């Protein structure tokens, strides 16, 4: 059979090329959709709500770690961020704004965890999953809770203080002051419970305070009141629920003229607190692996906007429901443990810690 005319040959060639191109596009499209399945959230929106900024960890660690993990897992997910500045009414407005803006998942560290059930209920009615972050929300069921074993935190703080008093031989020679966290934060009750589990019957508690807003300034005032009431020489130790309040208590004791500061506990491994531990002003802190907490919350948030279910290893009773929970382990840190925990994990570098006033103390602990 003779070959087709040149025009027909061109037409056949073009048809064949077009077919090949279409097939290639189909293959590429299939590859693209497969590649994107692990990073796409369908343009969904995730909202993160943090309670305040007086505690260093929230802006320095929780927020950037959470945001980075979400972006790594879901490149096209949109992020909304809100900080309530310890104002429950402001946080309510923020949650309402996020829902109005079309948030598909809420990660909520509540200012007042006992009062946000109506907000969670509103999210549920809009079919928006809720993850309680760091603080257990009470009064309503929701999707997940991510935090640390808070009673264990208090037990570790109490045991560390008891160990320090026993070593100093002052367990029965004076009284301790307990500076607990905010009464609107249910974690505070857990920390307090854990500390009392260890300390009750073993030391005399001269004064105890529940500190509004976890405020270092208010903690300083409380410590000043305790020193005035009990007498300077009577206070042999301080149970402070976090590092910020420890700084206030230390300021009060310095102002009162303590020649040597009694042991004082803390929590959050704030940079200034770790430096105080190295120089001997603060006895210990609780190191919380905030990276693990923030990243787990981010993983759950991405999973829920993709309609994926994640099995939780535990359940926590919030008074209304058993909440699927991820509870991470706290780590007590004294000066001799800083190198093998905080520095080893890269939470702070030696350069971060070992500024001029702390350099000699770092050298003593082998931090360089």
UniProtKB/TrEMBL annotation:
Q: Does the keyword Signal apply?
A: yes
Keyword field:
Signal
The protein's GO terms of the molecular function aspect are: carbohydrate binding
Can you name the source organism? Answer: Cryptosporangium phraense
Pfam families, A to Z: Peripla_BP_4 (PF13407)
Compartment list: Cell envelope
Where the record annotates domain Periplasmic binding protein, the positions are 46-308
Q: Which GO terms describe its cellular component?
A: outer membrane-bounded periplasmic space
Its taxonomic placement starts with:
Bacteria, Bacillati, Actinomycetota, Actinomycetes, Cryptosporangiales
UniProt-recorded name of the protein: Sugar ABC transporter substrate-binding protein
